[in-house]
Write a structure and sequence with these properties.
By secondary structure, this protein is an alpha/beta fold. It has a four-stranded mixed sheet with strand order 1-5-6-7, with helices on one face. A four-stranded mixed sheet has the order 4-3-2-8, with helices on one face.
Length: about 240
């Protein structure tokens, strides 16, 4: 019998890297809504109270990039107050140019403007054909956002991360070795309450109990305090978490 462990992570929409993905993705979506032939190569960088949006854009769409960025920040639910981004007052620096003529001359005739290698495969672990560990990590991250925005756990902040380690036997997921959840929270919340609430309202609502046994380890905010979040706590960059 072949046994091994496989670990995957996911992040919530308020994670600084995911914030950057959402801003760049929303700019792309807004361009394509107006011009299906838009060429959008936009990167976003977030640090402290400043968002930098840079890249190349060739489109007939008329969009307000700064307004788009502020709406994304607001919709995520950042609260400002020195603990994460203030969507109204943070600095938005936009540096967008047209696609270079050297690249455009190849794209104009139907070619690609860049090359890349993508790999992956579907599997039978889950009904969505994703590996069991990443499927659970994504669902846990989604649930963290749901309990925050639906005021089930209103003291949670938008920044968070999940990690799941699954034990396989002969390439079949048999049990969960570890669940780790770190989520931003209000300052007056104790770690005991946070762990209890996360287990009851997030983990138990997502994870089938048949995969959890007496040896499964559950960690909630294992480093302790997590009050400052988003770009005020860590820098963010596009495409670091888009496949997590």
């Amino acid at each position: 019998m072949k046994k091994y462990l496989f670990t995957s992570e996911s992040v919530t929409e308020g994670h600084p890297d995911k914030l950057c993905d959402l801003i760049s993705d929303t700019i792309l979506d807004k361009c394509l809504e107006q011009d299906e032939f838009s060429r959008v190569a936009v990167e976003t960088f977030a640090s402290n109270d400043k968002i930098t949006i840079a890249g190349q854009l060739t489109t007939n769409a008329k969009i307000d990039i700064e307004k788009i960025a502020r709406e994304v920040i607001r919709n995520i639910g950042y609260r400002g107050k020195g603990i994460d981004l203030d969507y109204e007052n943070c600095i938005i620096d936009v540096n967008i140019t047209k696609q270079s003529q050297d690249i455009a001359q190849g794209v104009d005739i139907g070619g690609a403007g860049d090359q890349g290698i993508m790999f992956g495969y579907a599997c039978l672990d889950t009904e969505e054909y994703m590996p069991f560990a990443i499927s659970l990590a994504h669902k846990l991250s989604k649930r963290l956002t749901e309990v925050r925005k639906n005021n089930i756990l209103p003291y949670l902040g938008p920044d968070g991360k999940t990690q799941v380690t699954v034990e396989y036997e002969d390439d079949v997921p048999k049990r969960i070795e570890t669940i780790l959840i770190s989520n931003q929270h209000d300052e007056n919340i104790t770690m005991e309450k946070l762990k209890k609430d996360i287990i009851e309202n997030v983990i138990n609502k997502v994870v089938d109990e048949k995969y959890i046994d007496e040896n499964t380890k559950i960690y909630v905010n294992p480093t302790g305090r997590f009050v400052t979040g988003g770009p005020l706590g860590d820098t963010g960059l596009t495409r670091k978490k888009d496949n997590s």
